[in-house]
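Bug #77: duplicate submission created two jobs. Keeping one. Sequence:
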Amino acid sequence: MPNPVQDLVVPEPPPIAVSLEPAQNALESLWLLIDANTKTGLGDWVVRTAAALTPKEREINGLVLVGFYYIVIPGQSWSDFPAYLNHLAARDPVALRDEILESYAQIIPPKNDDECPDMLPEPPSVDWEAVLESADTYLDFLHEHFGTVNIDDDLETKAYSYIIDPPAMQEMIVSHLRNMWDRFLAYEWAQTEPMLRDAVSAFQQIDFSTMSKLEALRLVAGQIPDEKKWAASLEQTEHVIFCPSAHVGPYLGAFRSRDTLRIFFGARIPNGVQFHAPDLNRAEIAVRLNALADDTRLRILKWISEAGEQRSQDIMQGLDLSQSAASRHLKQLSATGYLFERRSGGAKYYKLNPGRVRDTLQAIATFLLGS
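Kept job's structure:
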């Protein structure tokens, strides 16, 4: 009789899918805490939680997610976040440490900002004893593989103190993630999971089989700032999994693990799909209104509406905005779809999207008054 295990054929996952991905979704929410001071329009949970963290907790959160990204971000799907944490806690700490080092060794740094890092198919031979001899040799190794501008020396120096002590590294990572889950995420996940599952069900009604990965991203995300960069990233991946998020606001987030790119988008109902989910409608309207609920952003929209397409520098000068303030507000307005964004000659240009304004007003009227 044939061996049933040997005869079992595991189907190849589709190139494009929509899934809840609870473990990665939770980690994306924790990652957004790092962006809370630089991005406007993120979910209320992100804003509240970032404000509740102590400076030390914020530092550790950044260290865990950035310094140990290739350990923390799982390649496979998990039924829930606690199951993933139990698996992480049971791993051999030295194997975990070696995993991150080998991933670093495979990185090919991008030649410019419009490209994404690529990975060698196999980790090259590296003298790890020499790499780990000191914090300086470790930083030199990271600079070589990621480029100097992409490395935070202070953060990676702290990471080095754990890299050379794998049990302490594992304990620090697992204890931080458990603490964040127990204190902040568990209750929030219970509240938002039904809405996220509705979003998955709604998007699973779409036939992605005839679309390219970039076409699928346009459908899921709508307008895509930095489309060239996203297109390059999609070309380098075999599988794309779209994951609805309750916290990402109007932005897109992404985790790459080997041949799979998980892209996080604001939970909503896709255009053209009939699906009854008032919570999803309300969540999308809140994201759109958040972009308008600020005097500076309204001034930017009015300025561009009256003056026509404008460079970011013209907007800064015309409205007397600092570069950082203008960047934050323009990012949110572009991500929400109120502005079209394009690059030309090294500058960014912005133009009003009147259709998005009308769509927002119609969505509010339909939600409050009915069809």
